[in-house]
Write a structure and sequence with these properties.
mainly alpha, Arc Repressor Mutant, subunit A, disordered C terminus
């Protein structure tokens, strides 16, 4: 399992998300489920679901697949997903 580095998190902050939403978005883009993300971040699945709900709204996308695609289009993605 890869870990988010400083560059990946900084690049995703350009999407106007909270720091925690950025972390959740990173893991969504890595294909992790809400349950997996909760375990990784030490949060409940319900909390992660709420973060995902906010992310979808802020990015104006309808599902987590589009969310992950949007994250991968952020500038400097080569620094993120090498």
């Amino acid at each position: 399992m890869s870990k988010p580095d400083r560059w990946s998190l900084e690049a995703l902050t350009s999407l106007k998300l909270t720091p925690r939403e950025v972390e959740v978005l990173f893991w969504i883009s890595e294909g992790k489920s809400n349950q997996d993300i909760g375990i990784i971040l030490g949060a409940s699945t319900r909390t992660i679901c709420k973060h995902v709900e906010h992310i979808l709204s802020k990015l104006n996308v309808e599902n987590r697949t589009r969310c992950g695609c949007r994250a991968r289009k952020v500038p400097h993605r080569t620094a993120i997903w090498n």
